[in-house]
Amino acid sequence: MNITTFKKFFAVLFVIAIFTIGFTGCTNTNTSAVSNLPNEEKKEPQTHIVSTVMGEIEVPTNPQRVVVNWYIGDVFTLGIKPVAFMGWSQETMPFYDKFDGVAVIQNWEAEEIMTYNPDLIITYSQENFEKLSKIAP
User: Fold this and answer.
1) Which helix (H) or strand (E) holds 74?
2) Going along the chain, which residue ranges are E strands?
3) Distance between CA 134 and CA 81 in Å, rounded?
4) CA distance 61 to 64
5) Which of 56, 82, 71, 83 is nearest to 137 (CA)?
6) Which of 82, 97, 119, 128 is 20 to 30 A from 56 in CA distance terms?
7) Per-residue pLDDT reduced to its tens digit, 69-81
8) Could you give the 3-state DSSP secondary structure of residue 112?
9) How many helices (H) does the chain have, and how many strands (E)?
10) 66: which residues sit within 8 A by CB, 6+ positions away?
11) Closest Cα to residue 110, out of 95, 123, 96, 91?
């Protein structure tokens, strides 16, 4: 083997080594964050704290049964479809197409609100907050 062939062989070998190191360096083999226990699952928190004018309130992370007595469009914007609301709706309102299947509350009283089994109640009134926070956050 002459010196030129020898240099070409090592140059090719060097290029292959660089590519191998580059590709293996880009893969994620970090398992330190993964538990070694077979049945342990990572779970999202079920609730989180929200700061409001009424103080810190613990609310569900993914509420499923929301009842609202203020502009429902804000709730639709958050990607939440309430089970019931008190208010009015008309075809010219934004999000009107999302009102399908959302019950209208006729009487904003605890007894009627409880029939919807809410896991979150959204209201603007301090009086309502104090009265309804016993049913749901």
Assistant:
1) helix 72-77
2) 47-52, 55-60, 66-68, 84-85, 103-104, 120-122
3) 22
4) 10
5) 56
6) 82
7) 877 888 888 898 9
8) helix
9) 4, 6
10) 75, 80, 81, 82, 83, 118, 119, 120, 121, 122
11) 123
Amino acid symbol at 2: N
**Distance (Å, rounded) from C-alpha 102 to C-alpha 118?**
13
Structure tokens at 78: 């958050």
pLDDT digits (tens, 9 = 90+) for 58-68: 999 889 999 99
**Which tokens belong to 119?**
């896991």
* Residue showing tokens 């919807």: 116
How far apart are the C-alpha atoms of 132 and 97, rounded to whole Å? 28
The Cα 89–Cα 91 span in angstroms is: 7
The per-residue pLDDT for range 90-118, each reduced to its tens digit, is: 788 888 888 888 999 988 999 999 999 99
SS3 label, residue 69: coil
